[in-house]
Amino acid sequence: MKAREPEKLQGESIVFYDGTCGFCQASVQLVLKHNRRRNLSFAALQSGVLEALVPASQRPDPLPDSVVFYERGRLYVESDAVLHISRHLNFPYAVLYYFRFIPLSFRNLLYRFIARHRYKIAGQTEACMLPSPEERARFMA
Predict the structure, then answer these.
(1) Which end is more exposed in the chain, N or C (fewer Cβ atoms within 10 Å of the end residue's Cβ)?
(2) Sorted alphabetically, which Pfam families does this protein's record hold (predicted)?
């Protein structure tokens, strides 16, 4: 699969996920299934796409290791990433976006708990999942 050039990715909405995490891969499968508009692209955090797309000065340090969402030139991390991704999903998942009114500190506390235990929840893999042929165009190297 040929990687797209970073300057051509500026207008895309991209879900970055931990490619070795079973929980993250299951989440990507859920997003693929419920993003009928097919307006989200995907890249593993380990792929280097994020580093090529976003200057180091605009990336959080340390970069979260579970999910990051890039949209309209902005990075969203932790619970903000999840909620912004949910906006692109069909009902009932799109309703999650309205949880943004819950204080960020509480949302991120819950997010960090799940992220910290995600390998216990769904295991760890050596490689990223293989998308179906029709989904492959939405993934970046």
Answers:
(1) N
(2) DCC1-like
